[in-house]
Fold this protein.
Amino acid sequence: MSYWDPLPSVRAAESGPLPAPDGGTWRPAPEHRGGWWNPRPERWAERDWRNVPGPFYGAGTDNCWTGRLIAPAHVLYDDEWGAEFVYRQPRDPAQALALLGAAAQDPMGGYACDGDGHWTAELVGDWWRERGRVREWAAALHRRWSVSDGAGEREAAGGAREYVAYIDEGLAQDLRHYLFWLSEGRPAGPGEPLPALSPREARRRG
């Protein structure tokens, strides 16, 4: 599956109505729209290390655990402050709308979708090389929260399990497609070679 650019769908949908935590919809006030587009270099610098590479990321969010009520296939919570981060990028307009709804709930404006302007092949490669740290954290979170007395933690444990599975199978190919997108500004066509994620992979191909 080639890379799908969510940004046109996000721009088209940001005025609402957006998905709400209660399963309904809401329309954010004009002053609350588009905060994730604002250029704030410090937000990128403060992004959570568990965010998967891609346009969307969380940095110091304070959503009180509402993200997974709207976008459970994309949002996960840390185990320190309950801040949210993105563990899977959207792949179609419905998923982009769900993630946008989750982002719009954050009163701190900690979500952003300007990652394409910051990620480079080197940074993506660095993240992939250190993926074991993320996987270990997610696996430990699942073990702990899956037996929690709290219903919210037990639900979020499923997201941690999905993140581990995604790292193990699927994420590598998605990142290769993302590297092609960053390099060429378009999705890879059928049969086009994709960039390597690491020097070792490049040598193996060569």
Remarks:
- The longest strand covers residues 75-77.
- Residues 134 and 178 are 19 Å apart (CA to CA).
